[in-house]
Amino acid sequence: MELIIENCAHPMYREQLRAYYEEAKIRGGQTPHILEKAFSWHTNYAKNGTMLEAVVETV
């Protein structure tokens, strides 16, 4: 999975995908996944035009 993220995913999404995969591995299973988080990315896309999670910057 790491090779796919590093070689196929758009650079803007790599950090988010790495974090998702690490969290999914903790849950375990034959195919690590967190469906509610994956679906929330699609919901975010429909509402905001991006699957990227919101980043709050402090000034």
Automatic annotation (TrEMBL):
Q: Does the keyword Cell wall biogenesis/degradation apply?
A: no
Q: What is its EC number?
A: 2.8.3.-
Question: What's one GO BP annotation on this UniProt entry?
Answer: acetate metabolic process
Q: Name one GO molecular function term.
A: acetate CoA-transferase activity
List the InterPro entries.
ActCoA_hydro (IPR046433), NagB/RpiA_transferase-like (IPR037171)
Which enzyme class? Answer: transferase
- Supply the alphabetized keyword list: Transferase
Entry protein name: Succinyl-CoA:coenzyme A transferase Cat
